[in-house]
Amino acid sequence: MAVYNVESHIKLEPDCVSYTTPGNLGIFYCLSGQRLVVLNIWRDDNPEPQGGEDRFGVLKEVCKGSYSLAQQVVKRAEEEGSSLMIHSLTLVNPPRWSRGRIVLVGDSAFCLTFFSGQGAGMTLVASEVLCKAIKAMPDLPSAFSNSEKQMRPAITRLQSRVRALAAAYLPTGTVAFHTRNILLRLTLRWVVAYYHRKGISEEIMVAQ
Ligand SMILES: Cc1cc2nc3c(=O)[nH]c(=O)nc-3n(C[C@H](O)[C@H](O)[C@H](O)COP(=O)(O)OP(=O)(O)OC[C@H]3O[C@@H](n4cnc5c(N)ncnc54)[C@H](O)[C@@H]3O)c2cc1C
């Protein structure tokens, strides 16, 4: 994923728009003062952050053949000397969230990536579960392991969900891309609403 902000006179309606092409997703947010924040997300089998010194080179290659807005703003950002970050969207999944008196919470323990739209929510839930466990058990390693036991099943379900969502957001080839678009148009709104409600209900169930 690449993120940067750039001066732009392009007026977006609504304030946030996204475009998908096979294997590439661009999200554009309008800021005040005629600036745009741009996220570009693409598939890459290499889990390491890309680009080194030539990050704009990597991004231009990614946006080659993409919609013109993507190419236009990358060019503008490079001319402007905008600060560009490239990072892999990794589903963090260590075998344990704690060792001795050290405990991980939030993205460092179970990053759900931005595809889920629930990372911050689950971080708050996990923090609450952890605090309650510490309050109930003065022995820290037991409190950590108990809160992990409570959170793990929901996180595992949400991470499987994120893998499916990522595939839907970033279909690989042209056939997969058009199939996804047709299915999305045919899918009833309540099915989509049900799918998202189910994810949110995980947060509520674990917090209770
Ligand atoms: C583009 C995008 C969109 C998202 N949209 C949503 C959404 O709609 N809903 C949602 O619920 N979640 C969303 N998320 C996910 C959400 O932002 C994260 O899951 C959440 O912020 C995780 O919280 P955290 O406290 O674990 O980590 P962070 O919020 O990343 O906090 C970690 C902090 O540690 C600091 N830090 C790092 N290294 C060091 C160091 N060595 N020393 C000192 N400080 C350090 C960092 O600067 C940072 O401030 C989105 C994420 C992204 C990237």
UniProtKB/TrEMBL annotation:
Gene3D superfamilies: D-Amino Acid Oxidase, subunit A, domain 2, FAD/NAD(P)-binding domain. InterPro entries: FAD/NAD-bd_sf, FAD_aromatic-hydroxylase. It comes from the Eukaryota. Transmembrane segments: none annotated. SUPFAM superfamilies: FAD/NAD(P)-binding domain. PANTHER family: OXIDOREDUCTASE-RELATED, POSSIBLE OXIDOREDUCTASE. This is FAD-binding domain-containing protein. It comes from Aspergillus keveii. The lineage of its organism: Eukaryota, Fungi, Dikarya, Ascomycota, Pezizomycotina.
